[in-house]
Write a structure and sequence with these properties.
alpha/beta; 9 helices; elongated; Spore Coat Polysaccharide Biosynthesis Protein SpsA, Chain A; seven-stranded mixed β-sheet; about 270 residues
């Protein structure tokens, strides 16, 4: 089975057209061997009611509701937890991803890859606010992680379920799933995908997201290296501090015996 997961936050106007496109592609290519899981991330624009009516009318639709907005990563993780398919494909709820790219990504998994990442080569977003920071962030992430992808931020990716089931991520870390998979031996590929201009709503992200991405990458690196052996990191710095303090103590006592200078004041 193929599981599609869609985080949703105030995208009521885009949900209907998105679902119809997804259903057309999936029924044409995979008959009834698919499901779509919408995760309502605390929407307050009528998205929740629309999704419930959609689930009532189509057995392929599942809906998970959050009581408040927890962010895209939390919503994506919830979708992964509820997914029952051997292949899991997240995509955005704003209609900018193209469902027609899904069969090409699944075909890559059938070639033996565990992850196929989408690359929005011709991205239809604001050049200064979204595209330029994204290019810089992608280059930085590639340099820091050693995983060479053009577009870590593209939500449209295809995963073998065993690669991401049970992974716990926080903040904006969903974009680092290919890095996590690569560090654990998964074969990764990347293909250009279509990207449509937003027709409804507005973007939820700004320039401040670049700093969050950098901090989250540092966290991912820490978790990968030291989650099971934190003493390797904290023990090193603790030992270094111990050596420094002992050295300073010896120096202080030595200088105390001299008349030229002493860090320890003399008392009458």
């Amino acid at each position: 089975m193929i599981s599609l997961t869609v985080p949703v936050y105030n995208e009521r106007e885009a949900l209907g057209p998105l679902f119809e496109k997804v259903r057309a592609v999936m029924e044409r290519n995979y008959s009834d061997n698919w499901e779509i899981i919408f995760v309502n991330d605390g929407s307050h624009d009528g998205s929740a009611e629309f999704l419930d009516s959609l689930a009532a009318s189509c057995p392929r639709v599942k809906v998970v509701h959050f009581r408040r907005n927890f962010g895209q990563t939390a919503a994506m993780m919830a979708g992964f937890d509820f997914a029952q398919g051997e292949t899991i494909i997240p995509l955005d709820g704003d209609g900018q991803n193209d469902p027609e790219d899904i069969p090409r990504m699944i075909a890559k998994l059938e070639e033996g890859y565990e992850v196929c990442s989408g690359w929005r080569k011709d991205r239809q977003d604001n050049a200064l606010q979204r595209n330029l920071p994204s290019i810089l962030a992608n280059k930085l992430i590639s340099a820091m992680s050693g995983v060479q992808l053009h577009d870590f931020g593209c939500s449209l990716k295809a995963y073998r379920a065993e690669v991401i089931k049970g992974v716990r991520l926080y903040g904006e870390m969903h974009r680092f799933l290919p890095i996590y998979a690569k560090w654990h031996g998964a074969r990764i590929t990347e293909i250009p995908v279509s990207h449509h201009a937003r027709k409804t709503g507005h973007s939820k992200y700004g320039l401040e997201r670049v700093l969050k991405v950098i901090m989250d990458l540092m966290t991912v690196r820490f978790l990968d290296r030291y989650m099971l052996k934190p003493m390797y990191l904290f023990g090193f710095w603790g030992f270094l501090s111990l050596v420094a303090s002992l050295g300073f103590s010896v120096w202080a006592v030595y200088m105390r015996t001299r008349d030229t200078f002493s860090p320890i004041p003399r008392f009458p």
